[in-house]
Amino acid sequence: MDQAGDNSPVRVGDSPIHGKGLFASRLIRAGELIGHYEGKQVSEDGMHVLWVEEEDNHWVGYEGSNDMRFMNHDDHPNAELDGRDCYALEDIPPGREITIDYGWNET
Predict the structure, then answer these.
(1) pTM of the full predicted structure?
(2) Secondary structure of residue 100 in the 3-state scheme
(3) Cα separation, 107 vs 105, whole angstroms
(4) Short-list 71, 88, 67, CA closest to 79
(5) Count of alpha carbons within 13 Å of 27, Cβ hemisphere only?
(6) What is residue 4's predicted lDDT score, i.e. its pLDDT?
(7) Rg (CA), the chain
């Protein structure tokens, strides 16, 4: 896949949540950096666009170009984004899908 080398902690596979998903290819420890969401800046929403709040409440969209774009939503995620960096919230065993909260319920 798009992640670098055989040491990648993730792989893409069929997801029971939706379409393709991102899965742990090895044990990922709580607090560990899983990956960085790569992509060019865009101004319109799309299927793999990540919106990141930057300084001064300015939102920037990034159209995913690496495997990180396959992270699916879960109300009880096992990972979280800090900007475009994704970190494990808990130990994630091999084969478990890596999920984040898309923030749909935030007001």
Answers:
(1) 0.86
(2) strand
(3) 6
(4) 88
(5) 3
(6) 47
(7) 13
